From TrEMBL:
The active site is at 369 (proton acceptor). Acetyl-CoA binds at residues 386, 392-393, 411, 429, 446. Residues 1-234 are annotated as: Pyrophosphorylase. Pathway: Bacterial outer membrane biogenesis; LPS lipid A biosynthesis; Nucleotide-sugar biosynthesis; UDP-N-acetyl-alpha-D-glucosamine biosynthesis; UDP-N-acetyl-alpha-D-glucosamine from N-acetyl-alpha-D-glucosamine 1-phosphate: step 1/1; Nucleotide-sugar biosynthesis; UDP-N-acetyl-alpha-D-glucosamine biosynthesis; N-acetyl-alpha-D-glucosamine 1-phosphate from alpha-D-glucosamine 6-phosphate (route II): step 2/2. It comes from Synergistes jonesii. Catalyzes the last two sequential reactions in the de novo biosynthetic pathway for UDP-N-acetylglucosamine (UDP-GlcNAc). The C-terminal domain catalyzes the transfer of acetyl group from acetyl coenzyme A to glucosamine-1-phosphate (GlcN-1-P) to produce N-acetylglucosamine-1-phosphate (GlcNAc-1-P), which is converted into UDP-GlcNAc by the transfer of uridine 5-monophosphate (from uridine 5-triphosphate), a reaction catalyzed by the N-terminal domain. This is Bifunctional protein GlmU. Mg(2+) binds at residues 109, 232. In the C-terminal section; belongs to the transferase hexapeptide repeat family. In the N-terminal section; belongs to the N-acetylglucosamine-1-phosphate uridyltransferase family.
């Protein structure tokens, strides 16, 4: 019994070197808002409901494949060892796309296409039963783009380098995004030749070949040209990031009620989740899998990556969070740094010039200023005095400091880990704590003060002789 084909597969072409990027990094791994360019077309297709995808890799393919295996493990990887053009790439993937009724082909260096556009594109192609549909758009300056030629004989595309002067005057251009009936593409893919200025196998040549065989081709013009911005150099990369930033911030302001007084200075990545009634001041960056819950406040010059800010928390400004959590109604900053799964629990506070590394600060506890807390656990309602340091590294390994609840740690205390401090403990300012302190005790570990009467006066007299 013949196996029924699936309706759509998405093939992303990502083998190009990107010479104009002037970089050793494969073009599709350059980042837009901290995510590789390639993330965006794959995610758009996934969000549009297309679950089957494959990616053609070439230059820097090992790095691209490694990223795909981590981020899009269900995508099939197809190698194009020699970059001989888009039709050549499609030919190498023929075994894969032959299992679908239709194959959508996207450019791996075009990060701005939306799921909505891809959904409408597929629906129209299927509704009109075309052998091939492709997206087009108008550009005031179409230099470098393939021109869309419409005539009585149908629709075709001529690459810029092969176009006549009359054709180059056309403003409608090819986006490089296609949907082919798989059987129609299979019937012409081997007929495409490299007889052109670049000596490459061009996928647009399939359009006229399909029409010659009686198939119908349609160019579906979009009124959103920004969606088809390709990235070929660093300036275009920056432009793409700016467009995506504006799109994300606008959506959060309109749909989530995010208050943002200077949207153009705020940078938010595509994976970030923001709740209701969040306030973000100018010059803030939110990256990776960051989550900001309802009612939180994010002050200026704060940078968060893969971190969580719970409801009604307050980041007062110039705060850095990496892989860390600020609890509900907790506060941090200004000039605080939390990293490696540091956590503030409910209503805890970390203040000026404090670094928290791989530590937990308990409910209602405070580390107000000028302290380093590393590999530590602090209980509830404990106050850590200025200048406190957990000396966690002994030259070979990291050691843990445990401080109980209701403690008062005097300024300039050093805890030489491993050390455990019980509940309701105080330490004298300037102490170097090397031993455990039991519940309810005062820890004092410093030299006894000696006052030498008249010493300063005698010294001054001696210097003036």
């Amino acid at each position: 019994m013949k196996q029924q084909k699936k309706s759509f597969g998405v093939l992303v072409l990502a083998a190009g070197k990107g010479t104009r990027m002037r970089s050793k990094t494969p073009k599709v791994l350059h980042t837009v808002l901290e995510e590789p360019i390639l993330y965006y077309p794959l995610k758009a297709a996934q969000s549009a409901g297309f679950s089957e995808s494959a990616v053609v890799v070439g230059f820097g393919g090992e790095a691209v494949s490694s990223w795909l295996e981590s981020e899009f493990p269900k995508s099939e990887i197809i190698w194009q060892r020699e970059q001989k053009g888009t039709a050549h790439a499609a030919k190498l993937a023929q075994r894969w796309w032959s299992s679908f009724d239709n194959v959508m082909i996207l450019a791996g260096d075009a990060p701005l296409v939306t799921p909505e556009t891809l959904s409408l594109f597929a629906a129209r192609h299927k509704e009109e039963k075309k052998a091939c549909s492709f997206l087009s758009f108008d550009l005031d300056d179409p230099t470098g783009y393939g021109r869309v030629i419409r005539g009585r004989g149908g629709v075709s595309v001529v690459e810029h380098k092969d176009a006549t002067e009359e054709q180059r005057a056309i403003k409608e251009v090819n986006s490089g995004m296609y949907i082919f009936d798989s059987e129609a593409l299979a019937s012409v893919i081997d007929k495409i030749s490299p007889r052109n200025a670049q000596g490459e196998y061009y996928l647009p040549d399939a359009l006229s070949l399909i029409e010659e065989e009686g198939g119908s081709v349609d160019a579906i013009k979009s009124d959103a040209p920004d969606e088809f911005l390709g990235v070929n150099d660093q300036l275009q990369l920056a432009k793409a990031a700016s467009v995506m930033r504006d799109r994300i911030v606008k959506s959060l302001m309109l749909n989530n009620g995010m208050h943002c007084m200077d949207p153009r200075s705020v940078w938010i990545g595509p994976k970030v989740k923001v709740g209701r009634d969040v306030t973000i001041h100018p010059s803030v960056q939110l990256w990776g899998d960051t989550v900001v819950e309802d009612g939180a406040f994010i002050g200026s010059f704060t940078v968060l990556k893969n971190s969580t800010v719970r409801a009604n928390a307050n980041l007062k400004g110039s705060v850095r969070l990496n892989d860390s959590t600020v609890g509900e109604r907790a506060s941090a900053g200004p000039f605080a740094f939390m990293r490696e799964h540091a956590e503030l629990l409910v209503n805890a506070h970390v203040g000026r010039f404090v670094e928290i590394k791989k530590s937990k600060v308990g409910k209602d506890s405070k580390v107000p200023h000028l302290s380093y807390i590393g590999d530590a656990e602090i209980g509830e309602n404990t106050n850590i005095g200025a200048g406190t340091i957990t000396c966690n590294y002994d030259g070979e390994k990291k050691n843990t400091t445990k401080i109980g609840r209701d403690c008062f740690v005097g300024s300039d205390t050093m805890f030489v880990a491993p050390v455990t401090v019980g509940d309701d403990v105080s330490t004298a300012a300037g102490s170097v704590i090397t031993q455990d302190i039991p519940d309810g005790a005062l820890g004092v570990a410093r030299a006894r003060q000696t006052n030498i009467e008249g010493w300063s006066r005698r010294r001054r007299h001696k210097m003036n002789k």
